[in-house]
Amino acid sequence: MLAFSVWNALWVVFVSFLFVAILMMMFSVIVDLFRDDDLSGWAKAAWIVLLIILPLLGLLVYTIVRGKGMAEREMKSQLQAKEDFDAYVRQTAGAGSGAASELEKASNLHAEGRLSDDEYASLKAKILS
After folding, report:
1. Residues 88 and 37 in one domain
2. CA angle, corner 80, sides to 69 and 32, nearest 5?
């Protein structure tokens, strides 16, 4: 009969947690390595070799040596993504491109007397359809 105690189950959970945590750290370090423009290709290759040969020591040394820059590069990346998203939203839903703005322009032209009632009604129906 296979004996599997509560302590064994806790040990498996703990080891699994450590394994997943180390993998997540490894991926974040590798992403940071390739995100860094200041580091040369040879330096990036040396860090990758260190991470493959001695993963725990490599992660620890990388975090100590380049941890502050890692946080700054992540913040810079997030700010750039936010600016790109904001620019996309402004471009997509910007003033002058929607049906509401076209209807407002037609209404202003009608109020100024440049459009007759029939022209305004047909233009309004075209915009709203």
Report:
1. yes
2. 35
